[in-house]
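Predict structure. Chain length: 336.
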Amino acid sequence: MKPLESPNLAMGVFHGRRIIVTGGAGFLGRVVVRKLCERGCPDVVVPRSATCDLTRLGNIEKIFNEARPHLLIHLAATAENSTSRANIAESFYNNVMMATQLIEAASRHGVEKMIYLGSASSYPAGAPLPLREEDLFNGLPDDARSGHGVAKRLPLIQARAYWQQYGFHCVSLIPTNFYGPGDNFDPQRSFVIPSLIRRFLAAVETGEQEVVIGGTGYATRDFIHVEDCAEGILLALERYHGADAVNLASGTELPIHELARTIAALAGYTGKIGWNPRCSEGIMRRVLDVTRAQKEFGFRARRSLADGLFETVEWYRSTKARPPVPAESSRLEHSA
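Prediction complete.
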């Protein structure tokens, strides 16, 4: 199929562009959509999961026929339940089917460029640190999230195949854990930063003298503010013309016990912090190499973790309703 004619790009990369953003109503997606509008994109289509199941090819075809997009950003994903793992098969199926069919449909409908958001869980369990893109396929992901990691890795292979055979440009980005104002603080679905913020602020309100966190506190992660992550996505859409996957991260490794102490101080909590080593922490160390993103499209995380955590704590403090606090909640992952 012949690609849609492009407007005058001298007026701006996104000027006059029609863009589909799957997952555009989610935490990261809302920031991406706002930034697109700020860049002059007048026509952003956001499919809603309640009315449009993207695992169904018929729904995807309908969206493409109606929207006729120039560009596609695929952020929608299903996360595994890290406590019960009751939905691991559903999560695997949904993530594979959405990405596979969207790449195929985008290629056939003449979409000029697509962004696919992968997951840092796709990296092999024994890969050297910092995690470099060239090591993505040098082994299997950690057993604790192997289903999710493999499901999010498969489209990277598909994207390269479609580049080679059809010349279709699908950029694969691998984000680290993102956080910030507007994050999900639901106790059943929140990840480590919102979980800790919720628990420490609740402890301050109730006068709790000890907060027990699942794990040892010695696991490490790499965190990036949601605004920086969204900016990286749009920079890749604007400037990256390669076929290789690219990490989006801060490149800074932080132990969870340091993160907990920082959040406790911001929350005004002065009690004891305890740890329950019987709770799983997943892979013990994770930090992503950021060299390729800096070199290929000039991306660098701008917000410090200290500033980002302060902003997020204050945002949550200002909200009125808070859900009940579960015992020993500590999920370490927050990537697609």
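Summary: Confidence is low (pLDDT under 50) at residues 1-11, 324-332.
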